[in-house]
Amino acid sequence: MTTIDTKNTIDSILHEERSFPPPSEFVKHASINSTQALDALYQSASNNHETFWASLARKEIDWHRDFNNTLDASNAPHYRWFYDGTLNISYNCLDRHLADRADKTAIIFEGERGDVQRLSYQELYHAVCRFANALKIHGIGCGDRVVLYMPMVPEAVIAMQACARIGAIHSVVFGGFSAAALKSRIEDAAAKAVITADGGYRGGKIIALKAACDEAMAEGCASVDTVFVLKRTGADIAMKAGRDVYWHDAIKPASDDCPPEWLNSEHPLFLLYTSGSTGAPKGIQHSSAGYLLGTIVTMKWVFDAQDSDIYWCTADVGWITGHSYVAYGPLALGMTLFMYEGAPTVPDAGRFWKLCQDHNITVFYTAPTAIRALMKAGDNFPDAYDLSSLRLLGSVGEPINPEAWLWYHRVIGKQRCPIVDTWWQTETGAHVIAPIPGVIATKPGSCTRPLPGMDVAVVDEKGNEIKQANQGGYLVIKKPWPFMLRTIWGDDKRYCETYWQRFNNKYYVAGDSARRDEDGYYWIMGRIDDVLNVSGHRLGTMEIESALVANDKVAEAAVVGRPDALTGEAIFAYVVLKGERPAGGIDKALTTELQQWVSKQIGPIAKPKEIRYADNLPKTRSGKIMRRLLRAIASGETITQDTSTLENEAILEQLQGKQ
Ligand code: WT7
Fold it and tell me: What does the pLDDT read at residue 16?
């Protein structure tokens, strides 16, 4: 791990001082709306960490068998929560609502082309049971891995819930990832089945998911026996006899009742692959009970979830946000969940706001990159719609710049809606630092304070807590929490090294740097490892470099992030070719070719925005690429680093595009 680089910080948020008290209209109806109520929560968490979580677990989860042990820390940093209890997540999301809200709408769906579909809790329950039985008919059982590669349609949630019902472990691969990325994830988990579709509508096009699946499985993926194919678009696709089966055919022989499998609290619910600073993406493994509890309590605390809400989180199910705050949290609470299949700009940049109006959305959760893009399109888009149903707005994925925050607050929330800026990670499972909106005043750019039961700190290089205000350091979590990741699938050593070793297994190391201000508010400053955040999505620089060097023309590559007004960070690549360096270090045709190449290797989100060609990369005498220097060059900063240790100092001019 490298040392903390505060240069990487978004400067403008360092000096943001405005504070916004919870809007009174919101406070009136909020479930937690007094300092006393919140203090009582914090107090109860600090009195006894374990009792706090145990009583919440008993209150919020319907158990099949109650647990005896709250926290087992005997094998740290491997923790078990609520061990020996048994439950089923799908039961908690569906069956338990049938008594009092069977006819309540569980999912409202709108496709990109405007088709609308509604499913009541009763209907969703039967759809999940039927598909769960179809999985069983095809030999999928408890503990088997199932990969999903789906568009954002209700069937994606149905498939995830069906896996949960029978104890199969799902691994959702974002539909924007390439065939190669899909293949490596299928193989890493040795998945027995894949669930996909004949396509999905996005950006006015059909995303050819099945074709990518076929390509992934053309060689390798030997573990896969069955590919379930949802007919969404009716596009012409190839079906392989004996392996591929249409969803509608698979459910034909299946009953719409399927008793839930009672699973241990620690049974893995899912794997979700995410990028790190080294190697291939890692399969973050989550538990059942602890994870479910995290989604439930944070839905209540941070989103102030209420029975009357129509709740919309715009995240795709391919990301953790789409797991915790689409597929599980809202359903566990019996809420009405809205889902949208397509792009925010189809047919124009007013689509999100039109959807909010048409479906009376009350809670809206999205990413800063989307907010910035829609802000750029102009106020006339939101102004054309009635947004008065909204009562709470959320943000996730990266620090939100005050300009976007203030626009969101004023133009979308009409200053009536609190904004919850939620800091968390694939690994944390649910929100960790976020405001309780009825009580905590917000500051644009800060995710405010740790939630009750979350023991967060900022520490220095030695692991000592930094008490001084505004001093940056490593963001760590000091006590285990129920919804934390359990391990990395198939690579437990990497789990220990990545998250625990830095401070001798004492703290969970998030990989972000942060500072805490005079009021105890946290400000996330960025990653401290070689991980980029592009449009709220995590990408490893190494991953992109490996993709580049896999191209025949490329000898060496170094990838860094550069601040970008729209995507937060943009990918900037320095490439050394096997052949001659193009004049001036720029070659548009080759850049296009390499961009397409990376798209194919990983997915369009990993495409470098700019490529500069050099004869060499700047390295120290020990052969380490000087990334910090490359970052400075990419951002057009003046170079303050000492470059005298460079093996090849002359290369600087080339990298700066001066020759
Ligand atoms: C990384 C986690 C958690 C769902 C989306 C991304 C950054 C996330 C915030 C925020 C500042 C944020 C961090 C974190 N991040 N939310 N509200 N403010 N930074 O999940 O792909 O696991 O990425 O995203 O750097 O470590 P992820």
Answer: 64
Angle at 578 between CA 574 and CA 581, to 5 degrees: 60
Nearest to 437 by CA among 413, 407, 402: 413
How far away, in angstroms, is 448 Cα from ligand 1 center? 14
Query: Is residue 404 within 8 Å of residue 375, measured between CB atoms?
Result: yes
Place of tokens 């706090």: 52
- pLDDT at position 15 is 56
Bond into 347 cis (ω within 30): yes
In which order are the strands placed within the sheet that holds 508-516?
456-459, 473-477, 508-516, 522-527
Closest residue by CA, ligand 1 atom 14: 425
Spacing, Cα 192 to ligand 1 middle (Å): 31
Distance in Å from the first CA to the final CA of the chain: 33
**What confidence tier does 8 reach under pLDDT thresholds 50, 70, 90?**
very low
Q: Is pLDDT above 90 for 11?
A: no
- CA 81-82-87 angle, to 5 degrees, is 120
Q: Which residues line ligand 1 (CB under 6 A)?
A: 274, 320-321, 396-399, 421-426, 447, 510-512, 524, 527, 533, 536, 538
Q: How far is the CA of 331 from the centre of ligand 1 (A)?
A: 23
User: What is the 423 CA–ligand 1 centroid distance (Å)?
Assistant: 6
Per-residue pLDDT, 9? 42
Bridge partners (DSSP) of residue 561 are: 571
Per-residue pLDDT of 328-359, as tens digits, reads 999 999 999 999 999 999 999 999 999 999 99
Residue 36 — φ and ψ, nearest 5°? -60, -45
Give the residue-averaged pLDDT of 424-451. Answer: 98
Rounded to the nearest angstrom, the distance between the alpha carbon of 115 and the centre of ligand 1 is: 32
Closest Cα to residue 381, out of 400, 353, 342? Answer: 353
Residue 120 contacts by C-beta under 8 Å, 6 or more apart in sequence? 102, 103, 104, 105, 106
Per residue in 550-594, pLDDT (tens digit) is: 999 999 999 999 999 999 999 999 999 999 999 888 899 999 999
**Alpha helices (H) in 327-475, listed in sequence order:** 329-332, 351-358, 368-376, 380-383, 402-407
For ligand 1, atom 24, name the residue with the nearest CA.
Answer: 397
pLDDT digits (tens, 9 = 90+) for 88-142: 999 999 999 999 999 999 999 999 999 999 999 999 999 999 999 999 999 999 9
